Amino acid sequence: MSAALNVRNVAAALFVAVLALVPIYSATTGNAFPLTLFTRIVIEALAATSLNLILGYGGMVSFGHAAYLGIGGYAIGILAHHGIYSGFVQWPVALIASALIALVIGALCLRTRGVYFIMITLAFAQMIYYVAAGLDQYGGDDGLTIYRRSQFAGLIDLSDRNKFYYLCLALLLASLYVTWRLVNSRFGMVIAGSRSNDRRMRAIGFPTYRYRLAAFVIAGTLGGLAGALLANNTDFVSPAMMHWTRSGDLIVMVVFGGMGSLFGPLIGAIALLALEYLLSRVTEYWQIILGPLLLLVVLYGRGGIAGLLARADRG
Amino acid sequence: MLLFLEQCLNGLAFGLLLFLLAAGLTLVFGIMDLVNLAHGSLYMLGAYFAATFARLTGSFVAGAVLALAATLLLGFVLEMIALRRLYGRDHLDHVLGTFGLILFFNELVRLIWGPAGLSLPLPAFLNTSIEILPGVPYPTYRLAIIAVALAVALGLYVLVMRTRLGMLIRAGASNREMVAALGIDIKLLYTLVFGLGAALAGLAGLMQAPILTVQIGMGENILILALVVIVIGGIGSIRGAFIAAVFVGLVDTLGRAFLPELLRAVLSTMAASTAAPALSSMLIYLVMAVVLVLRPEGLFPAPGR
Amino acid sequence: MAEALLAVDCLTKRFGGILASDELSLDVCEGELHALIGPNGAGKTTLLGELAGELVADSGRIRFAGRDITALPVWRRTALGLARSFQVTSLFLDFTALDNVALAVQAHAGHSFRFWRPARDQRELRAPARTALERVGLGARADLLASRLSHGEQRQLEIAMALATAPRLMLLDEPMAGMGLEETVRMVALLRELKREFTILMVEHDMDAVFALADRITVLVYGRVIASGSPAAIRANAAVRQAYLGDAEGPVPDG
Q: A194 with A201: CB under 8 angstroms?
């Protein structure tokens, strides 16, 4: 992959530049809203990037990815509830918990394919949702407030909105880089090949199940990271974080942005959240417009926004 | 013991309602290869229609019949305007498109009926109990649900196995192109099948309405259970859906009723009361996981799938 | 002759009421090109499925290179040296021809839990892939998407992928399927060259090609072996003529 000066790469570079400038814009104009909005966008983009690995590149339609955000978030929340505020403890726990649960769920779900896979990932995510809603001592349905953000022994103060934003942005860029490396590596070839023709992959000698499971775990772990950031951002965790509609939102971001494209999730996150924001200014019932719009895009707009950019490249 | 019997009947009723929902879902998937997540929305609308029409006409039964008709009609319209364009596309497209429809319907309901739920009170003649065994009263309405659902199940069986339409449905499930090649108006067949599925969903919704509150989002919770039923029973198989649905209904209901007690007997009270609600919710998914490990295609997968 | 490279012993497989493999036994010796012929529905593709590991026979055993592979999953058999091409072309259509073959090379270059170095930069994968492509005559088409290749070129690509796994036995399922005259001639030339180096078990309907290439022929009818031997013996076999060759379009070739 050369750093060619094509439309897609230029657009991506522009996006990153804009993202880096947001806190400065907010500080100079005194308007905190862009910073708040974009912090959320960056975290959602990270979550969508984690899904892109298995959905966009791997073709595994997981309708339960929000569960890993919830697990990461609840790890932070539960530990904070018990007085453990050190990020050095919380964040590894969040990542390991997400990884382990992704391992168990993935091991079960990946025994199935196609529609079964979609339904089963949805079912397991719902199960985790109900478990969280049933945890009365951690707020149950109402959720759990976090009174202190993750502490990193003075290295970085997460309560400082600017510093927190740059941390999120740095983690997003790091995830994008890692994803780029992954999908071009031998491992990535197996995942992509398995998506293209799994039967053929096995015929040439790949035990595809274990590679897909590994990808599933990596995606879940990154999702847990996004969840940890989310918990710190909202100072709050609740089962709603893992409601299946959130999983749906993530899928929309990946698909809208362009499946199997690196910056697709970022574009999709911006697009969906911007759309949400704009439509909600038009009407309180903005989902009435978003819903059919989604259907229309599915029916008539192939390849998402990154696909449009790719066509601009060629044309 | 009596409690157990009562819970078994509750489980049966719930299971049969799940069957109505799952049957529609699996029919649509089996014949048109369409993953319709908005099926839950049809369930919800069946309940909302019933509550509204009952209030307008003053009669529960009239409300129910009108609601059924309305859901059937809505099913036809939905299929013709929107969903038929999804046939033959990637399942991911189905998931996204019908997800959009769920958002749409939830907001539409909120717009028309408001965020608070509705209630559908039972008419006097149903709001009674019958002694199923000497000294054992059981709500008439739940018996009515069981009776109606069993009748519908029987009707479905007759339809699919004994009529020409049913033959086309079975043929279409294993070989779509062949049915089209036979000169049958495949579009009409699909619309009818979808309408049937919608009506089943609406029926389940309106029957459930007096027992649970009629509210936004009620469709999705039960939809996911219906998906579990289909996974366990095997996609495309109505017989599998029936057996799995009753099974799931019983396991879920009995689990919620008796698991807390069982846990209390084994664990300390505190541990039991923490774990009980979580485990009860998880129970049916754990069962699904076990089935998946043993038979990834479900217990009765339809042939040719 | 030493133990056969591939020994199929009494394989039986039922699909509902149909007996696809009926106590089927055959063997393939090292270095030969063994053709498997028979009318449609004879169970040839079922047999290949059983040999490759996609289908599990109800009873019987399969020995390959001295090992009992009857219970091995598909991907393990390839590691042992069993390569397969498909009757209905099965490629990675959104990858280039080179990528397709490189994947086959990668499958046999250790595990793929390598997450960092770009695979497309790795000469240890790309070089053998190019060699395989050139061997089948697709060297110039290496960077085209597999979906853009002609049907005949796709069949050639299938062979290249089988080659890239450094096989001991190649299972070819109708390599000439759907090919025009010119493409068939090229494929026969290729196979004639390959058979000098590899052992091949080939299912084919094209009788000209079969008699031109085969060292031995086995005839399958209703899942049963009705004859097995040299091309001359098969041509002379009355039962075979009646069951299959005599019914085929056109006279029996002399070639």
A: yes
Cβ–Cβ below 8 Å for A185 and C119: yes
Instruction: Tell me the C-alpha to C-alpha distance, in Å, between residue A149 and each of A164, A185, A227, B115.
Output: 10, 36, 13, 34
Q: Are strands B136-139 and C67-68 parallel, antiparallel or unpaired?
A: unpaired
pLDDT (tens digit, 9 = 90+) per residue, A54-85? 999 999 999 999 999 999 999 999 999 999 89
Count, residues in chain A: 315
Boundaries of domain holding A161: 42-243
Q: Report the complex ipTM.
A: 0.87
User: Does residue A61 form part of some domain?
Assistant: yes
Chains that touch C (3 or more CB pairs under 8 A): A
Binary contact (B285, A116; C-beta < 8 A): no
Best mutation site among B95, B252, B294, B305 for testing chain A: the one with the most A CBs within 10 Å? Answer: B95
Whether the per-residue pLDDT at C247 is higher than 60: the answer is no
Q: What are phi and psi of A235, to 5 degrees?
A: 55, 35
Kindly report the pTM of this predicted structure: 0.89
Amino acid of residue C91:
L
Structural domain tally of chain B? Answer: 1
Contacts of A135 in chain B (CB under 8 A): 274, 278
Q: Strands of C169-173's sheet, edge to edge? A: C82-85, C169-173, C199-203, C33-37, C216-221, C224-229
Answer whether A188 sits within 8 Å of C119, measured CB to CB: yes
What class does CATH assign to C1-81+168-179+199-255?
A: alpha beta
| Partner A contacted by C161 (CB < 8 A) | yes
Structural domain count of chain A = 1
Within 8 A of A118 by CB-CB distance, chain B residues are 35, 91, 95
CATH code for the domain defined by C82-166 = 3.40.50.300
Q: Quote the minimal CA–CA distance from B7 to chain A in Å.
A: 22
